[in-house]
Amino acid sequence: MKFLHALALSIALLVALWVYLSVGNPDFRFTPWIGFVAWAAYFAAGGGADGVRKSIAAGLAGALLTAVTLFGVQALGGSLVALIGLVAVLAFVLVAMADIPALAYTPAAFLGAACFFGSGAKLDASALFVCVTWCLGVLFGLLSEHIGKRLARPA
Predict the structure, then answer these.
(1) What are phi and psi of 7, to 5 degrees?
(2) What angle do CA 83, 88, 90 make, to 5 degrees?
(3) For residue 142, how many C-alpha atoms fall within 13 Å in the half-sphere facing its CB?
C-alpha cells in the first residue's frame, strides 16, 4: 500500500476512535475539534518527534498564555479596552517567544490560543481539558503517522 493511502487509512481509523472518545464519552471532557486542530498542527510541524515537541510546547504555551491574558482582562474590570489591549500584548508575546527554540512554532502558539478562546475561554478546570485535549490530538497525529508507516509497503 502506498504511504499516502496507508496514512489515510490509519487516520480514518484513529478519527473513529477519537470521535468515540471525545463525543461518545462526554465525561472525558475532550473537545473533538481541539483534538483535530492539534492533530493538524502536528503534521504541519513536519511530524515525528520534532512535530510532537514543537506542537505541544508552542500550542500549550499559546493556550496557557491566553488564560493568563484573560485573567488579566478580568482583573482590569473586563472592559473591551482591557481585552483589546491585553490580546494585542498576547499576540506580540506569541510571536516574540519564537526567540525561544522550544516555543518557536508560532502557528501552534496561535492555534493553541484560538482553541482556548474557542472553547469558551473559561478560567476554570475546562482550561486543563483544553490542554489535555491538545496533547491527545498531537499524540493521535504521531500514532497515525506511525501506523501509516507500518501499513505502507516497503520501498
Answers:
(1) -65, -45
(2) 95
(3) 15
Determine the residue type at 112: G
pLDDT in tens, 53-112: 999 999 999 999 999 999 999 999 999 999 999 999 999 999 999 999 999 999 999 999
| 81, 133 contact by CB (below 8 A) | no
Q: Give the position of cell 470521535.
A: 19
Q: What is the largest CA-CA distance in the chain?
A: 61
- What are the backbone angles phi and psi of residue 93, rounded to the nearest 5°? -65, -40
Task: Round to whole Å and give the CA distance between 112 and 41.
Answer: 9
Model pTM score? 0.92
Q: Does residue 133 contact residue 31 with C-beta atoms inside 8 Å?
A: yes
